[in-house]
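Entry 12.
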Amino acid sequence: MANLCHLIIRPIESYTLEDELKSIKSVSARFVNKRESMSGQRWQQESYDHIIRDEKHLYRIVQYIGSNPQRASLPQKKWHRWINPEWRSLGWKLVE
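Predicted 3D structure (tokens):
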């Protein structure tokens, strides 16, 4: 099972980034624990975050994330990737 997750999120006005990450980690940890018949903590206490400042930077980050499974030599059938439909409408796609 992979032990890395990249996300690009924009916090909504009524939630902090910390609140959103806590929710994502909680839901995904419960899912993984149930699926793998495990229990206990699944995430590190601290996450690495990075502020994306403009569209060019966002595009570079999307490409970095998109090529990560290949750089890790994971077989393509194990890649679980999703890209925002709005970005697709701009002609963006993930590097294969």
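Annotation: Residues 42 and 94 are 27 Å apart (CA to CA). The chain has a mean pLDDT of 83.
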